Amino acid sequence: MTEPALVRRGARGKCNQAKEAFYACVKANHQKVGEAPACAAARKDFEEACPEAWVRHFDKREVYKAYKQKLKDSGFKKLDEMNPEKSEKSSS
C-alpha cells in the first residue's frame, strides 16, 4: 500500500481490521508473532493493507505486550536482589 492512501479513513480502517484479525489469530493459536504459520493468510492481508513501517511497529508492540504480560504473570527479580554484593558496594 502506498503511503498517501493512508490519509483516507477507509484505508486506515482496513489496516486496523487486518491487524486485529492477524493478532487475534496468533493469540487463538497460542503462537508468537514471528512464528505463526497457521495465520499466514491473515498475515498476508495485514501486510497488504498496512504500510511496512506500521507492520513492524505493530509487531514490536505485540512482542513487548507479551513480554510485559509474562513479567506480570511470572514475576521478576530486581537486579539488587539478584546481586546483593554490588548493591551493598554502590550504597556505601
Structural summary, described in words:
Helix content is 71%, strand content 0%. It is built from five helices and no strands. It has helices spanning 9-28, 40-49, 52-74, 79-82, 84-91. The longest helix is centred in the C-terminal third of the chain and has 23 residues, at 52-74. The protein is elongated. The mean pLDDT is 82.
Measured on Cα atoms, how large is the radius of gyration? 19 Å
What fraction of residues sit in β-strands? Answer: under 5%
Report the helical percentage.
Answer: over 70%
How would a textbook summarize the main sheet?
none
Count of individual helical segments: 5
Mean pLDDT: 82
What are the low-pLDDT stretches, counting only 5+ consecutive residues below 50?
Answer: none
- H/E topology pattern: HHHHH
Could you give the count of β-strands?
0
Overall structural class, as computed from helix and strand content, comes to mainly alpha
How far is the N terminus from the C terminus?
58 Å
Shape estimate: elongated
Salient structural properties:
92 residues; mainly alpha; 5 helices; elongated
